[in-house]
Amino acid sequence: YYRKAKSVMSLQTLENLSVRDMMSVPVVMDEETSIYDVIVGIFIENVSSVFISKDGFLSGVVSRKDLLRVAIGKLDLQTTPIGMCMTRMPNLVTIGGDDSVLLAAQKINAHKIDALPVVEVTPDGLKVIGRFTKTNITRIFADLASGEF
Ligand code: ADP
Fold it and tell me: Ligand 1: does its nearest atom lie under 6 Å from the Cβ of 52?
C-alpha cells in the first residue's frame, strides 16, 4: 500500500510541477546566422538544439541531426543562413511556462523530439523564455526517486 501511495503521489507531483520551475536557459539565434556559426554555437553552449528567431520571435528549431544533414551536403556553411535548413513554424511543438512537466514529457514523446521551446504568447509572436528537454525530464526523474519533491 505504501508503494502504491508513493507512486500516485509522484504522478501528481509531475502534474503540479510547472515547466517554468524546471526549464533550462534557451539558446536562441537569428534566422540570418550562418549554418557554420550555429554549429559553433552548439559546441560552445553545449546544447542539442538551437531555437531560431526572426525579429526576436520564435521562427524555427534546428537539431544536431539537421546540422549533420546539411554539413554533408553541398551548401556553403559559412554563407548560407540557418533559416534555409531549420524546422519552421507552424510545425513547431512548443510548451508554456505554466504548463506541467507531465504535459511537456507527453509532447516530447508524442512528437519524438528532444527539446521544446518554452514560449510566452504575445500579440506579435512567440517569445522564447526557456528550453525543456529530455535532460530536464531525466533530472526530474532522478530527483523524484531521491525524494527531492
Ligand atoms: P535529432 O534530430 O538531433 O535527433 P530531435 O529528435 O530533437 O533531434 O529532432 C528531430 C527533428 O525534429 C529535427 O528535424 C528537428 O528540426 C525537429 N524538431 C526538434 N525539436 C522540435 C520541436 N520542438 N518542434 C518541431 N520540430 C522539432
Answer: no
Other CB atoms within a 10 A radius of the CB of residue 77 amount to 17
Mutate to test the pocket of ligand 1, among 113, 132, 136 (most ligand atoms within 8 A of CB): 113
Question: In this structure, is residue 1 part of a structural domain?
Answer: no
The ipTM value here is: 0.97
Q: Within a domain: residue 2?
A: no
Cα(83)–Cα(50) distance, rounded to whole angstroms?
12
Is the distance from the beta carbon of residue 114 to the nearest atom of ligand 1 less than 6 Å? yes
Q: What is the rounded distance in angstroms from the CA atom of residue 83 to the CA atom of residue 32? A: 7
Q: What is the pLDDT along the chain (149 residues), one digit of tens a residue?
A: 555 565 666 778 888 999 999 999 999 999 999 999 999 999 999 999 999 999 999 999 999 999 999 999 999 999 999 999 999 999 999 999 999 999 999 999 999 999 999 999 999 999 999 999 999 999 998 888 887 77
Angle at 28 between CA 24 and CA 29, to 5 degrees: 160
Structural domain of residue 28, as residue ranges?
Answer: 16-145
- Find the CATH number of the domain harbouring 112: 3.10.580.10
